User: Fold this.
Amino acid sequence: MANQVDPTILELDEHQCWELLRSQEVGRLAVAIANHPDIFPINYVVDHASVVFRTAEGTKLAAAVLGESVAFETDGESDGEAWSVVIKGRALEIERMYELFDALELPLYPWHVGPKHRFVRILPEVVTGRRFRVVDRVAAHAGEPPQHRAAPD
Assistant:
């Protein structure tokens, strides 16, 4: 559906958002630590309409599971279009034995070599997404009116 304020922005439905989330491996986890925002890059996988990531003990884990809510975002660009999906919800550490066994089987591969033995699941309350044409950077830099890049043939 086109955005009411800007018709060049397409609002994605929840099914489209999950499809795009499944197409990526890296996103950003936003938390509040003592009322100060912080953002962490995370490797993730979609699992049963939720997002799962691995982490170690520390600030990210504590802020995610002890706070009231988190936000998660991932985005991408291809063929002259960009998109962004945001999930807002609660993060819970996966601690039950069988759920933990299931999490260990997920195709979840952190980039950093350090041990990440804790699994966290983000349970979404709100899932939103947008898609839009990318502005031609050269024209925008030269002060010309924005022109959308043509999609490759």
About this structure: The first helix runs from residue 14 to 22. The radius of gyration is 18 Å. The chain has a mean pLDDT of 85.
